[in-house]
Amino acid sequence: MYRGYALKSFYGIVKNAIRWVAFGLITGMVAACANLSAYPPAPMAAASTDYDYVVGAGDTLNIIVWRNPELSMSVPVRPDGKVSTPLVDELVAQGKTSVEIARDVEKALAKLVRDPVVTIIVTSFVGPYSEQIRVVGEAARPQALPYKQKMTVLDVMIAVGGLTDFADGNAASITRASEGDKRYAVRLKDLIKRGDISANVEMKPGDVLIIPQGWF
Predict the structure, then answer these.
(1) Neighbour tally for 96: CB within 10 Å
(2) What average pLDDT does the segment 94-119 reach?
């Protein structure tokens, strides 16, 4: 009788062990399937060699008018994308390069100043909304960042403080506005947790980095 009870207990233990093994296999398969992205991997190189910074609302411009210090000053770009300077009531700055703005100021000043020579230096960078990098989802500090030439996804993750404990980093994706909102897969977990530099890719102006929540 005791022997039969022992065998029954042994078979019960084996049966439970098999159940747990099966559960572990199924869980692993589900996790593996979850990490399989429907999007192609993001290209390593994305930056354009002919990129020129475009001024946006919130930027600060240092306007220097040669031989006219009274006309030189530092001004912010207003939320409507315009700036005001002495002798120039309103001038559209948003969406233009510093050189283009300088030529516009020269043209406006030419009505009152003889042969004005203007230099524009951008001293605070925000950039237009269309070129900002946005990070949404399971980042420590989701936010919008000004785009910088050769900026990578690692630079972005450092700026936002990394991933939360609930992030599914390898299921993250980039939506690329410059390519008609095409989506690319990025492996943030491999990059940040495992130091896999092959997962570091360049960003483009207007990219949106989406970090979903993990299942487990």
Answers:
(1) 20
(2) 96
